[in-house]
Amino acid sequence: MSYKDISAEWRVEESLAALRFFLGRFKKYTVAFSQQAEDVLLLDLVKQIDPNPDVFSIDTGKLFKEAAEYNRSIEEFYGIKINVIRPDEGEVERMVAEHGEQLYYESAELRKHCCHVRKVNPLQKYLKDFPLWLTGLRKQQSPTRTDLETIEYDEATGVYKLSPLLGWTTSQMFDYIEAKKIPLNPLYEQGYPSIGCACCTRPVQPGEDIRRGRWWWEDPTQKECGLHVKHK
Predict the structure, then answer these.
(1) Is the pLDDT of residue 4 over 60?
(2) Catalytic site residue 225?
(3) Most CB atoms within 10 A, among 103, 142, 199, 218?
Protein backbone atom coordinates (compact mmCIF):
# COMPACT_ATOMS: atom_id res chain seq x y z
CA MET A 1 0.00 0.00 0.00
CA SER A 2 1.27 3.47 -0.81
CA TYR A 3 0.38 6.79 0.79
CA LYS A 4 0.69 10.42 -0.18
CA ASP A 5 3.15 10.75 2.69
CA ILE A 6 5.44 7.76 2.24
CA SER A 7 6.66 7.94 5.85
CA ALA A 8 3.18 6.82 6.92
CA GLU A 9 4.20 3.33 5.82
CA TRP A 10 6.90 3.38 8.46
CA ARG A 11 4.39 4.59 11.02
CA VAL A 12 2.16 1.62 10.21
CA GLU A 13 4.98 -0.85 10.83
CA GLU A 14 6.03 0.95 13.99
CA SER A 15 2.50 0.93 15.41
CA LEU A 16 1.83 -2.68 14.42
CA ALA A 17 5.08 -3.76 16.07
CA ALA A 18 4.06 -2.05 19.32
CA LEU A 19 0.61 -3.62 19.17
CA ARG A 20 1.95 -7.12 18.50
CA PHE A 21 4.44 -6.84 21.34
CA PHE A 22 2.07 -5.59 24.02
CA LEU A 23 -1.08 -7.47 22.99
CA GLY A 24 0.97 -10.65 23.04
CA ARG A 25 1.98 -10.01 26.64
CA PHE A 26 -1.18 -8.59 28.17
CA LYS A 27 -3.61 -10.97 26.42
CA LYS A 28 -6.69 -9.08 27.65
CA TYR A 29 -7.23 -5.47 26.60
CA THR A 30 -9.80 -2.94 25.45
CA VAL A 31 -9.79 -0.26 22.75
CA ALA A 32 -11.19 3.24 23.36
CA PHE A 33 -13.45 4.57 20.61
CA SER A 34 -14.62 8.20 20.75
CA GLN A 35 -15.72 8.64 17.13
CA GLN A 36 -12.51 10.39 16.06
CA ALA A 37 -10.16 9.70 13.17
CA GLU A 38 -7.46 8.47 15.55
CA ASP A 39 -9.84 5.84 16.86
CA VAL A 40 -10.70 4.32 13.49
CA LEU A 41 -7.02 4.31 12.54
CA LEU A 42 -6.17 2.51 15.79
CA LEU A 43 -9.04 0.09 15.36
CA ASP A 44 -7.96 -0.71 11.81
CA LEU A 45 -4.45 -1.56 13.01
CA VAL A 46 -5.72 -3.66 15.92
CA LYS A 47 -8.00 -5.63 13.59
CA GLN A 48 -4.94 -6.65 11.57
CA ILE A 49 -3.73 -8.48 14.67
CA ASP A 50 -6.91 -9.49 16.49
CA PRO A 51 -10.18 -10.04 14.58
CA ASN A 52 -12.27 -9.78 17.78
CA PRO A 53 -11.06 -6.83 19.86
CA ASP A 54 -12.96 -5.52 22.86
CA VAL A 55 -14.00 -1.94 21.98
CA PHE A 56 -15.80 0.58 24.16
CA SER A 57 -17.27 4.06 23.75
CA ILE A 58 -18.42 6.48 26.44
CA ASP A 59 -21.84 8.05 25.94
CA THR A 60 -21.66 11.10 28.19
CA GLY A 61 -25.24 12.13 27.51
CA LYS A 62 -23.88 15.23 25.76
CA LEU A 63 -22.58 13.78 22.49
CA PHE A 64 -23.43 14.99 18.99
CA LYS A 65 -26.48 13.34 17.45
CA GLU A 66 -24.18 11.77 14.83
CA ALA A 67 -22.33 9.69 17.44
CA ALA A 68 -24.68 6.71 17.69
CA GLU A 69 -25.10 6.35 13.93
CA TYR A 70 -21.34 6.59 13.40
CA ASN A 71 -20.80 3.86 15.99
CA ARG A 72 -23.19 1.64 14.05
CA SER A 73 -21.40 2.32 10.76
CA ILE A 74 -18.06 1.30 12.30
CA GLU A 75 -19.59 -1.83 13.82
CA GLU A 76 -20.84 -2.82 10.39
CA PHE A 77 -17.60 -1.91 8.60
CA TYR A 78 -15.41 -3.97 10.94
CA GLY A 79 -17.89 -6.62 12.05
CA ILE A 80 -17.48 -5.74 15.72
CA LYS A 81 -19.60 -4.74 18.70
CA ILE A 82 -18.86 -1.44 20.45
CA ASN A 83 -19.68 -1.58 24.15
CA VAL A 84 -21.34 1.72 25.07
CA ILE A 85 -20.81 2.76 28.68
CA ARG A 86 -22.61 5.60 30.44
CA PRO A 87 -22.25 7.69 33.59
CA ASP A 88 -24.20 6.90 36.73
CA GLU A 89 -27.59 8.61 36.42
CA GLY A 90 -27.69 9.46 40.11
CA GLU A 91 -24.28 11.15 39.96
CA VAL A 92 -25.34 13.22 36.96
CA GLU A 93 -28.61 14.26 38.60
CA ARG A 94 -26.86 15.35 41.80
CA MET A 95 -24.26 17.32 39.84
CA VAL A 96 -26.88 19.12 37.76
CA ALA A 97 -29.04 19.84 40.81
CA GLU A 98 -26.08 21.44 42.60
CA HIS A 99 -24.36 23.27 39.74
CA GLY A 100 -26.88 23.56 36.88
CA GLU A 101 -27.12 21.87 33.48
CA GLN A 102 -24.47 24.10 31.88
CA LEU A 103 -21.93 24.10 34.70
CA TYR A 104 -19.09 23.52 32.21
CA TYR A 105 -19.29 27.17 31.12
CA GLU A 106 -19.01 28.52 34.67
CA SER A 107 -15.38 27.65 35.42
CA ALA A 108 -12.59 25.27 34.45
CA GLU A 109 -13.03 23.48 37.76
CA LEU A 110 -16.74 22.81 37.17
CA ARG A 111 -16.09 21.79 33.56
CA LYS A 112 -13.55 19.24 34.76
CA HIS A 113 -16.00 18.09 37.42
CA CYS A 114 -18.57 17.46 34.67
CA CYS A 115 -15.97 15.53 32.64
CA HIS A 116 -15.11 13.49 35.71
CA VAL A 117 -18.71 12.48 36.34
CA ARG A 118 -19.60 11.85 32.69
CA LYS A 119 -16.31 10.35 31.44
CA VAL A 120 -13.71 9.48 34.04
CA ASN A 121 -15.92 7.64 36.53
CA PRO A 122 -17.58 5.32 33.96
CA LEU A 123 -14.18 4.69 32.37
CA GLN A 124 -12.62 3.66 35.67
CA LYS A 125 -15.48 1.24 36.35
CA TYR A 126 -15.17 -0.34 32.90
CA LEU A 127 -11.40 -0.70 33.04
CA LYS A 128 -11.52 -2.78 36.23
CA ASP A 129 -11.78 -5.87 34.02
CA PHE A 130 -8.76 -5.03 31.85
CA PRO A 131 -5.00 -4.75 32.46
CA LEU A 132 -4.42 -2.79 29.22
CA TRP A 133 -6.26 0.12 27.62
CA LEU A 134 -5.53 1.23 24.02
CA THR A 135 -5.89 4.88 23.01
CA GLY A 136 -5.48 6.88 19.81
CA LEU A 137 -3.50 9.70 21.42
CA ARG A 138 -1.02 11.59 19.23
CA LYS A 139 1.64 14.06 20.32
CA GLN A 140 0.64 16.48 17.57
CA GLN A 141 -2.88 16.79 18.99
CA SER A 142 -2.10 19.05 21.91
CA PRO A 143 0.69 20.69 23.95
CA THR A 144 -0.54 18.60 26.90
CA ARG A 145 0.41 15.40 25.06
CA THR A 146 3.95 16.04 23.83
CA ASP A 147 5.61 14.16 26.70
CA LEU A 148 3.49 11.00 26.52
CA GLU A 149 5.13 7.58 26.20
CA THR A 150 3.90 4.69 24.09
CA ILE A 151 3.16 2.62 27.20
CA GLU A 152 2.43 4.17 30.58
CA TYR A 153 0.94 3.04 33.86
CA ASP A 154 -2.16 5.11 34.54
CA GLU A 155 -2.37 5.63 38.29
CA ALA A 156 -5.95 6.90 38.21
CA THR A 157 -7.27 3.66 36.70
CA GLY A 158 -4.59 1.20 37.78
CA VAL A 159 -4.31 0.09 34.15
CA TYR A 160 -1.51 0.25 31.60
CA LYS A 161 -2.30 2.62 28.73
CA LEU A 162 -0.91 1.89 25.26
CA SER A 163 -0.82 4.71 22.69
CA PRO A 164 0.75 3.31 19.50
CA LEU A 165 -0.10 6.35 17.34
CA LEU A 166 1.94 8.95 19.23
CA GLY A 167 4.27 9.78 16.34
CA TRP A 168 1.65 9.97 13.59
CA THR A 169 1.08 13.34 11.97
CA THR A 170 -2.40 14.54 11.04
CA SER A 171 -1.64 14.21 7.30
CA GLN A 172 -0.33 10.67 7.72
CA MET A 173 -3.47 9.71 9.64
CA PHE A 174 -5.89 11.02 7.02
CA ASP A 175 -3.81 9.62 4.15
CA TYR A 176 -4.07 6.17 5.72
CA ILE A 177 -7.81 6.48 6.33
CA GLU A 178 -8.40 7.65 2.75
CA ALA A 179 -6.26 4.86 1.29
CA LYS A 180 -8.13 2.21 3.27
CA LYS A 181 -11.53 3.81 2.56
CA ILE A 182 -12.41 3.79 6.26
CA PRO A 183 -15.67 5.57 7.20
CA LEU A 184 -14.96 8.92 8.83
CA ASN A 185 -17.18 10.78 11.27
CA PRO A 186 -19.29 13.22 9.17
CA LEU A 187 -18.48 16.00 11.65
CA TYR A 188 -15.02 16.31 10.07
CA GLU A 189 -16.63 17.67 6.92
CA GLN A 190 -18.42 20.25 9.06
CA GLY A 191 -15.17 21.70 10.42
CA TYR A 192 -14.66 19.62 13.57
CA PRO A 193 -11.07 18.26 13.57
CA SER A 194 -11.39 17.19 17.22
CA ILE A 195 -14.67 15.85 18.54
CA GLY A 196 -15.99 15.77 22.09
CA CYS A 197 -19.30 16.61 23.70
CA ALA A 198 -21.54 18.85 21.56
CA CYS A 199 -21.76 21.53 24.25
CA CYS A 200 -17.98 21.79 24.55
CA THR A 201 -16.92 21.48 20.91
CA ARG A 202 -17.23 23.89 18.01
CA PRO A 203 -15.86 24.05 14.45
CA VAL A 204 -12.47 25.65 13.78
CA GLN A 205 -11.22 27.69 10.86
CA PRO A 206 -8.81 26.17 8.30
CA GLY A 207 -5.25 26.36 9.62
CA GLU A 208 -6.27 26.74 13.27
CA ASP A 209 -5.01 24.36 15.94
CA ILE A 210 -7.00 21.12 15.73
CA ARG A 211 -8.09 21.31 19.37
CA ARG A 212 -8.98 25.00 19.36
CA GLY A 213 -12.64 24.05 19.17
CA ARG A 214 -12.49 21.98 22.37
CA TRP A 215 -13.28 24.01 25.53
CA TRP A 216 -12.40 27.11 23.52
CA TRP A 217 -12.80 29.38 26.55
CA GLU A 218 -9.93 27.72 28.46
CA ASP A 219 -6.11 27.88 28.49
CA PRO A 220 -4.89 25.58 25.66
CA THR A 221 -2.13 24.16 27.87
CA GLN A 222 -4.77 22.82 30.27
CA LYS A 223 -7.28 21.34 27.83
CA GLU A 224 -7.86 17.79 29.04
CA CYS A 225 -11.01 16.09 30.28
CA GLY A 226 -9.23 14.00 32.89
CA LEU A 227 -8.95 10.75 30.94
CA HIS A 228 -5.35 11.41 29.93
CA VAL A 229 -3.84 13.43 32.75
CA LYS A 230 -0.39 12.45 34.00
CA HIS A 231 -0.10 12.07 37.76
CA LYS A 232 3.37 13.21 38.75
Answers:
(1) no
(2) yes
(3) 142
